[in-house]
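The pair is set out directly below:
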Amino acid sequence: VAVACPVFGSQQWSLVLAVAVGSATCALQCMVYY
């Protein structure tokens, strides 16, 4: 559990970071197009 918890946490943060970057990229593209 002590090993699996940090691994799951890092994966969860990676997913959140990926979604945040994807949303920011989409917003940036929308600003460029419009």
